[in-house]
Amino acid sequence: MSWKRVPTVVIRTLAAGTVLLVAAACGSDKHTPLGPDTGSVQVSTATTGHNLDADGYSISVDGGQAQSVGDTASITLDGVTAGSHAITLSGLAPNCSVANATQTVTVTAGASATVSFQVTCAQQLAFESSSSGISDIWVVDQDGTGLTPLLSDTTNNEVPVWSPDGSKILFLRLANGNADVYVMDANGGNLKRLTSDTAQDGVATWSPDGTKIAFTSTRAGHAQIFVMNADGSSVTQLTHMTPPSGESGPDSVALTSYPAWSPDGTTIAFQSRQTGSFNIWSIDAAGKTAPKQLTTGTDDQHPSWSGDSKTILYDSKQGAHREIFKMNADGSSQTAITSGSTVDNAGPVYSPDGTTIAFFATGTQSEQLFLVDADGQNRRQVHSNPGQIQARPSWRP
Fold first, then answer.
1. Judging by beta carbons within 10 Å of its beta carbon (0-12, 13-18, 19+), is residue 111 exposed, middle or buried?
2. I want to staple 303 with a disulfide (CB 3.0 to 4.6 A). Which of 180, 269, 355, 375 is the partner?
3. pLDDT in tens, 263-293
4. What is residue 24's DSSP assignment?
5. What pLDDT is stored for residue 35 in this prediction?
């Protein structure tokens, strides 16, 4: 029986995590030997920055079938016909970029050509944005590039929070007058509703291991903090804050909200107006002890934690405008990070490495995203768009 030899490309993996693929010639259980008119191409990738793509990338020759390669790895393509070929790197995450995704190489028979790709991945922020009265979830790179909508529909989607592994985003969705907690993949896909109570379920946060979610709900009357499994099951009430003296009826302003789970898993900080003014409180994550009031200002809101669970950020209005403050986890050493502002600064959150604080500021124009160094210096705007509200940032881990 005669048979026709099929051109073959053999992928040799030189780094863990990439895929070994061997295409054999029809009618033979052995690799097709390299002919006198073929050579090889060694392709290497090097990736730097933040939120590296765990799935790696894809390599193709002249637009052919793509093969996998790690984010910092090397593969050799054997059996490539001598001549000029286009080597293309694809499959990059939205926050990653490469200067030259397609490179041309000349393959010489019996020799090996080399191609290298340098990939840079930026630190990302998720935030809520509105330009037409409807809030949606967007992402942007720390340097202001890569502005991308993840959700864009007729419902209000607000207060995004990244999962600890950076693969998902929690958020509040307001539709038909009812608020619920939703989750989606980091690219905006695989949308899932986690709560479906007739009460208002809102602002949520993850436990550090990603297995539980703390959220705000009015299902007990006044707004309280509840905890549920990450799939929305096993809802339990954590706080039992009481409304200010003389107040009755449903909340006109949430009694308790903005839970923030400490990275060490032991404590949940939150804001409550039990005393008549918003203050920052904390409670052990198991709910075994009474909550502790940490601040006594006239309007303290939006707590968030440092990576070592030793410091809490928050914003406070102690003068004409809101400023960013920090304090120890027990409420001591309350210190202003920003001061003398001519706008309100709110919603501060530490970057994963603790060197930068993201927040949103309001003034004569719509709310916009800003960054400042952890010591309050070097204030800069992330992305300027006066016609687009940008608020409540969340760093991707």
1. exposed
2. 269
3. 999 999 999 999 999 999 999 999 999 999 9
4. P
5. 57
**How many residues are there in the chain?**
397
Q: Are 142 and 123 in contact (CB under 8 A)?
A: yes
How far apart are alpha carbons 262 and 268 in whole angstroms? 6
User: Position of tokens 């405008």?
Assistant: 321
Task: Tell me which amino acid residue 124 is.
Answer: Q
Report the alpha-carbon distance of residue 258 to residue 271 in Å, rounded: 6
Other residues' Cβ atoms within 10 Å of the Cβ of residue 386: 9
Terminal-to-terminal C-alpha distance of the chain: 60
Q: Which long-range contacts (CB under 8 A, 24 or more apart) does 245-253 make?
A: 245/276, 250/218, 250/221, 250/222, 251/218, 251/222, 251/223
The closest of 301, 197, 322 to 259, measured between CA atoms, is 301
Amino acid at 66: A
Specify the pLDDT at position 25. 34
Please give the single-letter amino acid code of residue 184.
M
Host H or E run for residue 193: strand 192-193
Distances (CA, A) of 288 to 51, 53, 284, 339: 36, 40, 7, 37
Per-residue pLDDT, 364 = 55
* Rama region for 258: left / alpha / beta (φ>0; ψ in -120 to 50; rest): left
List, for the chain, all residue ranges whose pLDDT scores fall below the cut of 50. 1-34
pLDDT at res. 89? 96
Residues paired with residue 135 on neighbouring β-strands, in sequence order: 130
3-state SS, residue 248: coil
Alpha-carbon span 4 to 15, nearest angstrom: 34
- Identify the residue whose tokens are 């033979």: 28
CB count, 10 Å around CB of 90?
Answer: 12
Q: In angstroms, rounded to a whole number, what is the distance separating the alpha carbons of residues 89 and 27? A: 32
pLDDT for 16 equals 33
Predicted confidence at residue 252, as pLDDT, reads 67
Q: Are 331 and 375 in contact (CB under 8 A)?
A: no
